[in-house]
Every structure is written in structure tokens, then in C-alpha cells.
Give the backbone structure.
Amino acid sequence: MDAASDATDGPGADRPSGADAPVDVPSNVDQRADQSPGGDAPTDSAPVDAGACTTQSTVLARAGTTSACSFKVAASVPHDRVNLSIGGRLCQQGSNNCTARGGWFWIGDEVALCDDTCIAWENIGANLVLEVGCPSESCFVACHQAGGPCGDGINSCCAGWRCGSGGTCATCAWGGQSCATTADCCSGTCTNGACIDGIGGTCVSQAGCSRGECRDGRCQCATDQILCNSGCVSYTDPNNCRGCGNVCATGTGRVCTVNGCVCDPQSAFPDECNGACVNKSNDRTNCGFCFNTCGRLEQVCNNGVCGCPTGQTDCNGNCVDTKTSQSHCGMCNRGCPAGTETCSAGSCVCAAGYARCPTGNCVNLLTDKYNCNTCGNSCPGNKTCNNGSCG
């Protein structure tokens, strides 16, 4: 892509005459001494830029905490009043074909970092801040129409003009338009009477692009693709996941999605906590949300909530099985008399060798003086019950 051109120019369109100072993105990023991993994060109410035109400042993400290099922006935010900052404003690109200057670009309703800028950001642990209010700062210097200066390393020709041998801009043909020689073309080559160009070249039709698609007057990768050495590849290409050469680390449970390398949402560990793939629905050390550990050892995480294991009930802070608990039989705090009754299937039943009489108590019919052999059979006087007989 021609760094001096406007990505939305079409044949014969008006060209800008003003100039935005170019910004060396890698240098800006490298100078972020105050954005080390331990630095303070800017707040939404305190714009990074002190300019009076900034009305809103939002931290999109902190490097090292996400694999994404693109972030959705509210539809109400004007695209021409947005700047990204990593301690100093990054320049905006004209399309999703980034130049060596780096920077960022719009992709639908998302702002996305150029590959080199994203890699530099990830390496320094800084906050990526969205500033709203000031005009977007561009990477591009002013371009010139016919007769304007070019070829001096500073000035260049707008789309639709080419730099002639005398160092001045002259008319030229876009990709897909007719030509006699390659010199007639703005860029690319003249093939079979028509200008053909690759990614970044001007075009009026798809026939003028050797790769990619003709969009907004440029041969560009599709909106869901990025330009790498191998050509236009999908953002979800496993060898170029949201960035050229970015391969999701094997053995980590991560896969490539439109949001970058993330924990596989279809696996048993779909959630990320502190760089590891976990399952917040059943991980007792990350129950419901990261770092939430269930308070008691016997507790388990079920559907993101800490509680007693299946089949047990929390009684006074302890997990018990109310079907068999001697102190919590059938419900919390309902105990069975020790020695004479036991808890079975949530009910107090007479222990082995005991029988329940109409009085409600469990007695030993072989030795109970008042229920000797049968309930209600009381031994007279001083006689005792021995082996179910009064004597």
C-alpha cells in the first residue's frame, strides 16, 4: 500500500491538501518507560492526552492479558474522532493494509492494531487506550495531484497520479483501466492492455487486482483477512492467528478464533484464568470467576457455585449425608438417640436388637422390665426381664 495515498480515493476524487506529521509507531512504543507491567493504568475519567479536544479515554486492554489485537467500539463513537494511545498516540492507517510505520486501522466497528504494533505492545505490558474527541492522527503525509512534487522521499502523488521522470505528479491509469505500457499505470504492470496491481495498488475493478479484492479504490485483503508474506490469509489461519506468524502455542488448550488464540470454547477447559485454561463451572479454585477458591476442603464447584458434593447437605457449615448422619438424619439438626437408634435412608430406625413400642421408644425386648418379650408386658414387683422372660 502507498503510504502517501488516501485509501478512500477514487478516480478523479478530491485529494487532501493538508499534512499530518508521520508518527514512528515502534519508537513511540519503545519509549513507554511509564507503562511497564507494574505501572498504573489510566482511568476512563482521566484522558491520557491532555488536549482539550479529548472527551473520553478508555483502557481497551493491557498487554499480556489478552491475545486480541482488535477491539469493538460503540457505534455512537465517530470514526474520524478516534485515536489509540500506548503512552503516545499511534497514527491511523488508511485501510487494513498496514505500512512499515505500523499504527492501527478500522475494521468494521472494531479498531485493530497493525501486526508490528501489536507485537511491540504485547512485549511491553502497557495499556492500550482509546481516546475520543480529537481528529484521528494519520500516518500519511500530504499527497499531490498533477504537477505537484514527488520522488524526493517526502512528497508523493495521490491515488490517480504517478511520479514522472521530472519529479512531478502526472496522470496515470488505475488497476483495471487501459494502458499501453507499464509507465501508464499508477503502479503495478500493464498486462494485455490493462493495468494490473497487487495488494495496496489502486483499482477500479476486480480485474485490476492480481491478489485480494478491489475495495474503496484499492486492492486489499478481504475485511476478515490480513496481509502476510504468504499473501492474504484469514484472521483465524492457525499459522497467522490475528497476526502474521502468530501461532497458538501447542499443548495449552488454545485454538485460533476471530479474537485470537483463546481457550477452546468446545473443550472441557473453555475459560482462561491467569494464562491457564480452566473450567469456571467446576474448578474449585476458579469457581464462577478467576481465583475464587471454595472456602472448605469438602466443598466442590458446581455450575460456578461453591457447595457440598452431590448427595450432601450443608448443616451448620459442614457437608453431611442426611440419609445416614446420626446428628442430621433426614434434615439438619435432627439427631437419632445414640445406642438405640440409627439413621437409615433419612429416618431414625431402631438399632439391631431393638424394637419400637407404642410409646415411641426403641427398647430391647429381651431385657426391658417394662416391655419383656412384647411391648407393654411389664414384669411384676422386683422381677427382671431376662432373655424375654420375667424372673
